[in-house]
Amino acid sequence: MRLSMFYSTLLLTGVNLLLRLVATSFQVYISGRIGATGVGLLQLVLSVAMLAETAGIAGVRTAAMYLSAEELGRKHLGMIPKILSSCTIYSVICGGVVSAALYGGAPLLAEHWINDLRTVGALRLFALVLPLECICGVLRGYFAASERIGTLAAVGIGEQLCSMAVTMAVLTAWAGSDPARACQAIILGSGAGTCLALVSLGVLCPHTDRGQSVPQRGVVRRLLRIAVPLALADDLKAGLSAAEKLVIPKRLMLHTGTEAPMAAFGVVCGMVLPVLMLPAAIRFALAELLIPELARWAAVGSTRRRRYLTRRSLRMAMLYGLCCGGLLFLLAAPLGETLYHSEEAGRYLMLFALLSPMLYCDALIDAMTKGLGQQTYCVRYNIITSALDLLLLYILLPRYGMYGYFLSFFATHLLNFALSIRRLLIAAQISVSFYRPALAGLSTLLSIWVAAQFPVGLPRTALFLGMSWGLYWAFGALRREDLQWARGLMKIRRP
What we know:
Radius of gyration: 23 Å
Order of helices and strands: HHHHHHHHHHHHHHHHH
Oligomer: single chain
Distance between the termini: 6 Å
């Protein structure tokens, strides 16, 4: 039996939160072993590694997930080996090219980007690991499409534990406190975890009957149609993100001529945004499941089911975003003080909490748009908004400092949200009224105002949750059929 979407979402959310907690604790351990200099060097190495990984994977994970979900929906199981082999070949070619470029260009990157030749060894180690990461992405895509979420969760936990164990062993036996060796130890540990995940997924992958007679629908052409646009979008977005990291420090310094704006930027990126995106873990998990789900229904031509799933997902994402945003706004000050002993973090968290409903919905809308085969539009929108973000940061940071960063963040995410939801409504062939969402927003604001009159803690939290969801129900933003849909998600599905 397969897990329901509800339990799959909970499982993925729990695993993601657990892995994030473990990774944070391990980061503290690493910081203690290699010091601030080593951590700074490691972050620079990882920035290059992430850029290379983005280029190497080249959209193949989403492509493998989408194509596998289509054929599973049509019950053409004989197509799965062809899809997996085509995606693997594509990933090996892309990953191999990027790996060779990274291996050969490691000295130049170390000298001109990182400004430390000690990182050459770590960069070359990652170049050797990269092709394995790409192949692993293909298998992860297939397992997500086939709804084997428990397998993915178990493999993810095993991968993390293996990576940590190997890293600690190499640090103790060889690297010590040397920053360059420590970077190599961490990359080596990551590679060991990837090898374990690859072997595990390869063994657990079912051997579908290759002799089954099914129509061959141009797998390579379909693969390229999905993967190439996503690869171009990811590469351009990664490049623009790297450009942003170069622009932000220089333009912030022009605001006052002091280090204060950069300190505020560190507060926002290192303290505020991690807390802001913590409730979004469930959103990431649901987005991971919606792509294959919508692809399956689109493949069999079930327009009614596709519309139903899209409407319900949009409504529940909106209500969840409003609820989380309200809670973060009410608890911003105590969270900033408790977690970071910083009033400034609380103020910025309160400001960014206003964007929570839009941020949480946007990723879900992006996933549903991809699930309906609209990858090209997602590419366009991401490129447009990333370029606009870079332009706005360049213009606004010297004049307004961190408030300029907030304005740019708000404007670009709002534009992406508006474009994406318009495309989703067209692709899903549905129309929505903004009357009830507006009432839900007003209900949330009213609940925040009332709850703010009570002491911080359980009374304020309980009052806000009870009042907001009660008003959602009273104004029709939450309906009986939504609850029926939620109960349906909890049913175990048979294969």
